[in-house]
Predict the 3D structure of the following.
Amino acid sequence: MDAISLKNVHISFGKAQILKGVSLSVMPGGIYGLLGPSGSGKTTTVKIIVGILKASVGEVVVLEEIMPSFVAMKSIGYMAQENALYEDLTGQQNLEFFGAMYGLSGKNLENRIKQSLNFIDLSGEAKKLVSKYSGGMKRRLALAAAILHAPKVLILDEPTVGIDPVLRRSIWRGLYKIAQTGTAILITTHVMDEAEKCQRLAMMREGRIIGEGTPEELKAHYGCFSIEDVFLRLSTEKDEARR
């Protein structure tokens, strides 16, 4: 059973059609990437998956619940592009607040905060006010908040922007471990080397999925050496088809 399923999803804002028949599925225990430039529809897609937006047409199902669903939302961890953090609180206090919202308390909350801070290498900065954090530290804390309640579905919108390469590699190792527990992970990115790390990948452009498969399948099918080459080829073919 898919943890996330989108079938023929469309959404419009006024006369502007943002998504045009998007279909995808993410299995439990898989890391699925959405690759595309800014404005391609990635963030709109994830907002529909987590229930912030409602599709104009099509079906969105998460953990067997038609979205938006409060039942499913409780089991989703979501890291948005914009950091939803309280800057007048410390990192620790932010996680205590979000943990309480997820229904965590006592020793369980304490342990989950410790594990999440270790995951993003912020244990030594937990007592510092978030207003004193760098941009990269805020992104790391937002990721810690998203994984705090051990969600069954984890949605990460450009999670490693502003994070140094060494820590980025560590975070990816951690994400693989989270996936191995059965969590379905969906990541948006415009970074080609990150796309290569996903177990399955959808390439988006102008509100449509123009290619989908494992990175190896996509490169083999289109005779390319890199995901960047695949994306450029598909984009060129799309442009030529319009002429």
In short: The first helix runs from residue 42 to 50. Residues 28 and 34 are 17 Å apart (CA to CA). The first strand starts at residue 4 and ends at 13. The mean pLDDT is 93.
